[in-house]
Amino acid sequence: MRKTANNIAAAVRALIEVSITPQKDVGFDNIARRIYEFPEVKSCYLVSGGYDLLVVVEGDNIQTVADFVAAKLSSMPNVRQTATHFLLKKYKEEGQIFKQAKDEKRQNISY
Amino acid sequence: MRISKKVDALAPSGIRAFFDLVLGMKDVISLGVGEPDFVTPWHVREAAIQSLESGFTSYTSNKGMIELRRAITTFLKNRHGLSYDPEEETLITVGVSEALDLAMRAIMNPGDKILIPEPSYVAYGPVVELAGGRPVFLPTTFETGFKLTPKQIESAITKGVKGILLNYPSNPTGSSYNRKELEAIAKVIKRHNLIVISDELYDELTYDFQHTPLAALPDMKQRVIYLNGFSKSYAMTGFRIGYACGPSDIIAAMTKIHQYTMLCASITAQMAAIEALKSGGKDIAVMKKEYLRRRDFIVDGLNKIGLECYKPQGAFYVFPSIKSTGETSMSFAKNLLEQQKVALVPGVAFGRFCQDHVRISYASSYENLKEAISRIEKYLKKK
To answer: Where in chain B does DSSP place strands (E)?
Structure first.
């Protein structure tokens, strides 16, 4: 993946729900490994619920991420279905709350 | 003239115009805020919301809810070994500001003097004057870490000096006294039978040693009016809730004034404060850790760019020297604001002798502090 000058500012993240047909006698592990070995994949989790793997992908822009999902992820053997959710706004991550400038409720100056 | 002579004689804030300038500006990085940048912990806010939903909207006892007074005295006993009777020796007030005002009005006779270290919080002098007393300011310096010495207090005691007002950790310097230093000061206080008004609002934000309340020292409890609250340690500035603990005669006198003027502190704030004392310990620890990180960064950063900065023991302020710039504190603050959009408070607001200093509050995000240091450096380089 081409790196940009300012990865943090330019990076687009997406959470992708991946539904898988598990392999006989093996389960999800091999397929998960093939997915998480892509450098674009930042996180990969096996989850309970309506799909199997939750995959976090990062790319330069929406198009890059969409291309990755279409070309690399969806087309993988045993991947039945994907649903891509682009991150629009971070409120809190790993315990850190992101304050927006307009969140400042205090007066600019006080004794 | 319609305004009382006493109020008319009070010196207006010398930096009102500067404050107005800052308040009117957008996109300023402010290092001039005297309150936490953390919001009140959610469980405390929730307790306040629940109290309203449950219909707790009436007056409380003048002295404050007994549940809160008991929670405070239990806390002080466990934390500091300090025992106060919740009935006779504890009063809930509308912020420590009200407690301070009540204390002064309860003890001052016209012309009585109170010793106040300088630099000090802006309200101290005016509150003493409004109570009919006379503030006597004792300058402290960078060289002594902005702390009073026993010798300095001793030599200031003249006829008419009734007491001394201490604030530690201090606003604006962040200085605090360790136990040994307090014991030395206590000797002078006992020798001259002074009353002490001890504003210890920032006590939980003491980084380098365990805070010791002055009232916890031997033979001091009966001489000290202990003031504390919730604004800084629990980030509850807007709730306006504080308390005073002290000898029963003084607390009774303070209560007498309080019952006529304020009646009681807000019930919502009192119920939130009960929750804060019950479960807020972990929140303080998180905030304190972050403040400490910022303190170390800002002291180091200021010294590196050429503004000599003493490392304070508590609160969230530093009081660096701007002597190397040749500017007065007001001109430095104004020029920095106009040229680099960084706001801080001129030292002269806190003491006539503080022209060479500015107060920087590090109650602001680490990122803001980094950016502010960078902009101050740019300002210094352009001079």
So the answer is: 29-30, 90-93, 113-118, 134-139, 161-167, 195-199, 224-229, 242-245, 317-318, 342-343, 345-346, 358-361
